[in-house]
Structure formats: C-alpha cells, structure tokens
Amino acid sequence: MEGELKELLSDIKTLKNSLPDRSQLHCFKKCLRLTPMESRVEHLSKTTTIGPGQRSKIGCACLFALQDMNAEVVDSNPYSRLMALQKMGIVDNYERIREFSVAIVGIGGVGSVATEVLTRCGIGHLLLYDYDTVELANMNRLFFRPKQAGLTKTDAAVQTLSDINPDVVLESYTLNITTVRGFETFMSSLRNKSFCSSKDGCGVDLVLSCVDNYEARMVVNQACNELNQTWMESGVSENAVSGHIQLLIPGKTACFACAPPLVVASGIDAHTLKREGVCAASLPTTMLLPGLLVQNTLKYLLKFGHVTPYLGYNALKDYFPTMEMKPNPQCSNSACLERQKEYALAKPARDAAAKAKMEAEAPSETKCLHEDNEWNISVVDDTDLQGSDVGISSGSLPEGIIHELPSADEFQKPPVSEEPATPVDDLEDLKRQLEALNAG
Fold it and tell me: Has residue 231 got a pLDDT over 70?
C-alpha cells in the first residue's frame, strides 16, 4: 500500500507540472479537488511508513513468497501464539489465514473491534467501508483515539491497523453504500481479484455486515445475493444489552429479506424508532459481539468446529439462543429466488459428493496382521464359541487326570453333613426338657 500511495503522489505532481499555464493551477486544483485528495494521500502515506516501535512486514502468502508464519515460541515472534491452534490440532494449517480476504461494512462499535481482532489474527486482506468521521463521542469504542477526531473512520482504521500488523493488506472506501454510486463501487470492489487472482467467484471470501440500520443491511443483502457471496450479519440492540450474529449463504439459508425484522414486516418506519441522543453502543456488548463474529469467521474460513447459523445474546439473562432459518420460497428479493433455484438444482451432485466423502472417510475393516505364522496362533472371540459344538469344554480334562486344586471359576458349595438332623416332633417333649434344665 505504501508503494501505491507514493506512486499516486508522483502522478498528482506530474499532472500539476504538465499544465501549460501555471496561472490556471488554482482553478485546476479546485475543479478536480486535488488539494484534499493530495493531502489525504500524503497523510495515508505517512501512516503506512515504518516508524519507531513498528516491525517490518513479513509478507502475504497470496502476493509474496516471503518467509512463512513461524511457530517458534519466542517473545519477538508475532505469530507464535496464533500458531497454537495448529499445534494443538484444532486447525490443520493456520497459515492459510493469510490467503483470505474479508470485507467489513461499517467501522463503528462492532466493526472497529472486528477489524482489529482479524488484523491481530493475521488475516491477509481487509476491505473497510464507512462514510462517517471519528468524533470524541466514539472514544467508548476502545479502537479510536482522541487525536484521530475529524479523520474519516476508514482512514483512522488504516492508521491504527497498520501499526498493529503491517502484514495485512488494507483497502479502505469512504463512501455510503446506500447511494447509487456507492453501491456500484461496493459491488466492483467485491468483484476485484487483485489480492488473489486464483479465487473463484468474488474477490473476497466473506463479507461482514457491522452496520446499524436497516437500509444498509438490505444493500449488503442485495449485493451478496447478486454476487452469490456468503456473508455474516451482526447487530447490537438499541438498549445495548442484547445482540446477534447470523450466517447467510445465498440459496441455502434465509437472506435478510426472507425474514425481515418485525418492525419492517409490520410496516413501521424504522426511523421513527430511533431516539435522539441514544446510540446502541454498550461497551461490554460491543466487545462481546465482535468476538463471537470473528470466532465464527475463523471457523468458516479455516474449516474447524461448528459454524453457527444464528447466535443471539441477551445480557440480562446471559441467554444465547441459536436457530437456523431456511430460505423463504416467496421472498421479495428476486436475486434470492435465483440463488434458491441454483441451490436446489445442485442438490443431487452435492449429496453424491457428500456420500462419497463419508464412504472414503469410513474406517475400513481391520485385517489380521499375521494371518500366517509359524506357531499357528489365532485369536478367537468368545462370542464365536457360544452355541457352537465344541468337542472338549474349557473345564474338561483327559481321562485319568484330575485337578489338584479347586477351580476358582466354580462356586464352591459348603459340605453337606450325612447325619440327618433329629427332628423335634413333640412340642410338649421340648417343653419338659426346658423345665428340667431350669429345675437343675
């Protein structure tokens, strides 16, 4: 990114120097808005240069063939703790994380923390989208700093994330995706495969929606349905004590339009519910939700554990409901209906592949390692002897041979006396004997 910014600065200077009439420079700058553009590029170039306390880049697996992630546990290795997932057998190859590209829409309470966690985890490529600027009221985010007030959230994010992990390729877009031009730029950036040209479909592996309004969610939903792009939706309630994350796979799961929020389905204007001066940004909730979102993201990308389709959170009761929503055949989104048809047509091939995989992974029958041996030793299951005609039982001995000691497997009955006990037939006789004893 540093090289691209320097090249852009050089192009701007070349363009200014190529003017035939220097007196027209001011008008030229004003028309093309070169002054704010040039100052912003200079600012970004300064934030991407290596300063005191920063480390040099290790490189990205998709763009460079530089050194690999090192699992050596030393204080100077930024990836030694991350590679523990691979050492413990949870992830097959953690280094693959540098091959993935993730788009994050909304760099607010949830989005800013999600970008930081993914950056610290060593993600390869991050695309950041937001139109807002940093304010002092945003200092409860644990991401932005007071000196960044006035910067766009995307520029401030690039500045912070570059310091945390210079290996991550950062691509920022300061725009509103709900506008026509913003939506077109959003779509083209998702299609772009400059990070990894070998990717199938879009240029990103996952889209994370961290916006706080219905319109922006619907725009992300529309774009992902059209591009057949898997994405995850997240949100914190206005009372700031509950939230959710949701996995949306076009055609397989319900899209955001299949099951809209109750206020939207009821025809209520969502804008009327927004209270002035209230922001859904409880600090603990906006720390927890991004953690759950990124955890689900890593499980999806690195293919380990169970990727939950929907996970809710209620802080008042510490309640985590889960569910799975199927797509709505009467969905109002035409792109969603197209994805549903494609998913249904591919079902036979998908089921056959899953069956073949299960059969390949099924354990094969254990064969005898020593089928032929010189001692003719064989192991027979005890159940095979039940009901079979065995000539000599396990306890029998050849004729003329007896056991010296009793077998421990047989129950030893107490010896029976041959003298019969004398029965007492007459109760009166017994009484007389008792009286004679007392008299003596």
Answer: yes
